[in-house]
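Protein in question reproduced for absentees:

***
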Amino acid sequence: MKGSLPIIIGIMKPRLYKNLLRVLYILSIAVYIYFLTDGWSFYETPYQERPHMEQRYRNLRPAGFRGHTFGVIGSLMMIFMLLYSARKRMERFQKAGNLSHWLDIHIFFGIMGPLLIVLHTSFKVQGLVAVSFWSMVAVALSGVFGRYLYIQIPRNILGNELSTDELEKINKEMADRLKTDFNLDDELLSIVEESAAPRLAPDAGIAKMLLLLLVNDLSLRFGLRKIPADLAARLEMPPKLLHLLWRRARQRGLLRMRTMLANQVHQLFHYWHVVHKPFAVIMYVIMVIHIAVDVLMGYRWIF
């Protein structure tokens, strides 16, 4: 594919990078599950009875060797999350790698960091730490939603938002490639695109629009929406070629839908920041207080 055509929906990533990211998640979750199951007998024990477990208590309590390690690594991950904000906002870092890759690592730390903090607390939070903990949970959950909003805004391969002119150029290129690659005339192209385009009511509210986007994202990814039988018969193509045509037509339809909803998504993104940022500030402030108090009370990094 030539020109800007590879910019189809959101962010397209090299296959190697996607595979490495997938492996990172699989290994991290596998290690996490191991530690969770290994310490489950301690975590499910009532808090007042845990000291009687002696070795497990010394190891898995928040100040224990493993519990402390979870807290240190989890806290570092939460701090490393701030690097994405630096990359996005500080001029000196504007060319420091692909912004979408930075976001992926930001999200990875935002998932694994809180999970490790959960093990650090040994599933027991109270007092001021509880405020930080639940703020952390709110940040993590809202981050998942924010990531979905982010990918609804069409971007180039560097993660930068596309202009209206760029979107029009990409749409035209995609239409031209559909015609030439699959030998379609204008009438057939119109029929294919109309059949493949996501359904969107003109008066649909933002919640319904997001739901439709989600449904169409899932159907495109997992092939849930099949090409109509009468259209397939009319096109007279081998099954693999027909599937590729249908997928490209769906991709173009979804890009056009995202372009139509750009203003609404931007507005919702603004409201998301209003919720996400205060919880993040509360989380970091209390985390710093918690660490400072522990150090003043004599706790040290035990490695």
Summary: The chain has 13 helices and no strands. The radius of gyration is 24 Å. Confidence is low (pLDDT under 50) at residues 1-12. The chain has two domains: 15-156+276-296, 164-264.
